[in-house]
Design goal:
The complex is a heterodimer of chains A (294) and B (424). With 294 residues, chain A is an alpha/beta fold. Helix content of chain A is 37%, strand content 14%. Chain A has a single domain, classed as Rossmann fold (3-Layer(aba) Sandwich). In chain A, a hairpin with a 2-residue loop joins strand 7 and strand 8. By secondary structure, chain B is of the alpha/beta class. Chain B has 2 domains: 220 residues, Thiamin diphosphate (ThDP)-binding fold, Pyr/PP domains (Rossmann fold); 140 residues, Rossmann fold (3-Layer(aba) Sandwich), CATH 3.40.50.920. Chain B is globular and about 70 Å long. Classes of the chains: A alpha/beta (294), B alpha/beta (424). At the A-B interface, helix 2, strand 2, helix 3 and helix 5 of A face strand 3, helix 3, strand 9 and strand 11 of B. Strand 2 of chain A pairs parallel with strand 9 of chain B, so a sheet runs across the interface.
Chain lengths: 294, 424
């Protein structure tokens, strides 16, 4: 693979040690290249971008209120189209799971429905981490957050599926622990015309409760247990990504306890929760099997 | 100061609704990006703009959004990418935009909103009052109000010039009464495109994300303090907001200038661009009002004058920034001012009334001011109501009975039979 050497994030950002999002953002910008304009809602990425007057990236970024990421991307695109620059410049919307699955879902749905030619990346650290770990629509079952002190009682929202239902040309899942896979997916998305949606799992050491050195390990476990499969849907056709292929065989999946047990947010999980997870993952993969057969 | 219409422009005269006058102004201002969401009574503005685009009469991108919140978010982003941008809305649409209003002004984005005014729910009402316009007075936008369809067209063209002036760079709302103007046809002169291009050159924006050679982080987090680093010094939030206030203050002169230039070029003027006066030369009392209420007052003045009162009208055109100095200079000469508000600062009184009182504070022998509420939610405002208010107001003045209490004119509580049941 031809991985671009140039970096687009300056060193010394305000991201936490071991931040999954920072890794994702770094690879995404490398894949999209310098002719990119970003737009970012209130999120951990706002923090990474730093304070007024200093920009931590080599691309221009428009910060925008929480609910408006999809609309802001459409606005930038509208102006670029008016100037005839829309083929040359890529518009990247980069939002967290709260900004995507909750408060930003309406603007995002509108933006893709009207065919906005942009890449929308949701980095999913599975709660409102920037405001201090409150639950989001993407927080998984059983996870502790400051607003679910007894553990969340429902599964996370299947956002990639919601996006797929919009009939857009490209939907993919990715994971901070597989940077080359995500690099390739962003590169691919850059070349496709129309709305592209990439949903990336972003392990978060302080929010999930693990040692910053373990970001990659935890991310891999999310894949290896079958909890977060990597796939692409290109023009409606489902492709299981290489790193998740062997998980089609149930025996190759690690027990979910390996993943859950490595994070403090899942401490004291009862047997019922483990059972619910196993059913959830079985169903997930039954559906994947069906889709591959099609 | 009524309009002086040049006879040689008769051939450009069309019969248009207020909404379509606004749409024609957008077309001739060569707006590049429009984004809007339908709401009564604004919708015909953006329908007409869509039609212009479809017929190739306007080369703009129309971003059809799923809410007004997104509409203004699109406008903000498109403006930050360097384009001339505008939208239109009413009432609940403007309220849904609220979060983006201070965002646009804080970022100094010269976006134009046409506001066909409408009452705010609950309860639902699609008819006009000025509550939506008034309610967004503290978000840092320039706010102009129109009295007829020609003024809507002319004010839109001036609004782009004002908003995009480097001394200003502020978003602007052009308000006009829903239905009373938005859906009523009047003659409107559309100017030659060449002359408009001359009056309103293409935008030269201070922010332009599309120039990717200049990397910018637009609107990241500011601190309460100034941040100094070896790369440079960044202002704190406080300094940004100071500059916003200063830009608003200095925009008063720019509003006048744009108005005067327009009058010079096209032969139509609206008072001094800030307010319009009517029959004030010999007046000792004046009515102070805006939009449809000012128009109604013009009508009622004939009767009032015939009854022997030396009374005139001051119709406010620029509501924000509030032209306190201009109004002090003007109003000092009058003994009495009767203010009619088609809005309320709920819990206090009509907003025009208390804004004017505060503007005139400290004058020697200040005028007596009495405010009345009229016409909320589209209740018809007749000459009789204006006359009733004036007579009551002058009576209070004579007796020296000053009061900040709201008084509603045109209320029909006596027709609500359920209120009277207990007594019968």
């Amino acid at each position: 693979m031809d991985l671009r050497e140039e970096e687009f994030i300056y060193p010394g950002t305000r991201a936490c040690a071991g931040c999954g999002m920072a890794l994702i953002y770094r690879m995404a910008l490398k894949a999209l290249g310098p002719k990119t304009i970003g737009t970012v809602p209130a999120s951990c990425l706002t923090v990474l971008h730093g304070m007024q007057g200093f920009c931590s990236t080599k691309i221009s970024v428009l910060h925008t209120p929480f609910a408006t990421t999809g609309a802001a991307a459409s606005g930038i695109l509208g102006s670029l189209e008016a100037k005839g620059l829309d083929d040359e410049i890529c518009v990247l919307a980069f939002a967290g799971d709260g900004g995507t699955t909750d408060i930003g879902i309406q603007a995002l749905s509108g933006a893709v429905e009207r065919g906005t030619n942009f890449v929308y990346a949701c980095y999913d650290n599975e709660a409102y981490m920037n405001t201090g770990v409150q639950r989001s629509g993407s927080t998984p079952l059983g996870a502790y957050s400051t607003t679910t002190p007894g553990g969340k009682t429902t599964h996370k929202k299947d956002m990639p599926k919601i996006m797929e239902a919009h009939g857009i040309p490209y939907v993919a899942t990715a994971n901070a622990a597989y940077p080359l896979d995500l690099y390739e997916k962003f590169q691919k998305a850059r070349k496709i015309k129309g709305p592209k949606y990439i949903h990336i799992l972003a392990p978060c050491p302080p929010g999930w409760g693990f040692d910053p050195k373990d970001t990659i390990k935890i991310g891999r476990l999310a894949n290896e247990t079958g909890f977060w499969p990597l796939y692409e849907v290109v023009d409606g056709i489902f492709y299981l990504s290489k790193k998740s292929k062997k998980l089609l065989n149930r025996e190759n999946r690690k027990p979910i306890q390996d993943y859950l047990g490595s994070q403090k947010r899942f401490r004291d999980l009862g047997e019922n929760i483990i059972k619910a997870y196993n059913e959830y993952i079985d169903n997930l993969w039954k559906n994947i099997e069906k889709r591959i057969e099609e | 100061m009524t309009q002086a219409i040049k006879v040689n422009k008769e051939e450009n005269r069309k019969i248009l609704t207020g909404n379509h006058a606004a749409a024609h102004a957008f077309r001739q201002a060569k707006v590049e990006v429009v984004s809007a969401y339908p709401i009564t009574p604004q919708s015909p503005v953006v329908e007409k703009i869509s039609d212009f685009i479809a017929k190739g009469k306007l080369n703009a991108r129309f971003v059809r959004v799923e809410s007004e919140h997104s509409a203004l978010a699109v406008c903000c982003a498109a403006s930050a990418t360097g384009s001339r941008v505008g939208t239109a809305t009413s009432a609940h649409g403007l309220e849904l935009m609220y979060e983006m209003l201070p965002w646009a002004s804080g970022n100094r984005l010269p976006i134009i909103i046409n506001l066909a005014t409408r009452a705010l729910g609950a309860p639902w009402s699609v008819w006009t009052d000025h509550q939506d316009f008034i309610t967004v007075r503290d978000v840092g936008w320039i706010q102009l109000f129109c009295e007829n369809n020609q003024e809507i067209y002319d004010t839109n063209l001036q609004a782009f010039k004002i908003a995009e002036d480097p001394r200003v760079f502020l978003p602007t709302i052009v308000g006009y009464d829903g239905y009373i103007l938005s859906h009523t046809m009047m003659p409107v002169i559309l100017e030659d495109q060449k002359e408009i291009d001359n009056f309103l050159p293409p935008i030269n924006h201070h922010i332009n994300l599309s120039d990717i050679s200049k990397v910018k982080g637009v609107d990241p987090v500011t601190t309460p303090h100034i941040v100094k680093r070896k790369e440079g010094t960044a202002p704190g939030y406080y300094e940004y907001r100071y500059s916003l206030q200063k830009a608003l203050e200095s925009s008063i002169d720019v509003v006048k200038q744009a108005h005067d230039e327009f009058a010079e070029e096209f032969g139509r003027s609206y008072g001094n661009g800030i307010y319009k006066t009517y029959l004030t030369k010999d007046a000792d009392s004046v009515i102070f009002a805006m939009g449809s209420i000012a128009s109604q007052a013009r009508n009622a003045l004939e009767t009032l004058r015939n009854s022997g009162l030396n009374i005139g009208l001051v119709s406010l055109r620029l509501f924000r920034p509030f032209p306190a100095e201009d109004l002090r200079n003007l109003m000092a000469q009058f003994k009495n001012i009767i203010v009619f508000d088609r809005d309320i600062g709920y819990g206090y009184e009509g907003v025009l009334s208390y804004e004017l009182k505060s503007a005139l504070y400290g004058l020697n022998n200040p005028p007596f001011i009495k405010g009345f509420i009229v016409g909320l939610g589209g209740r018809d405002v007749s000459d009789d109501q204006i006359i009733e208010g004036v007579e009551k107001g002058l009576d209070y003045a004579e007796k020296g009975e000053f009061s900040n209490k709201t008084e509603f004119i045109g209320l029909k509580l006596d027709e609500l039979d359920f209120l009277n049941r207990g007594e019968k």
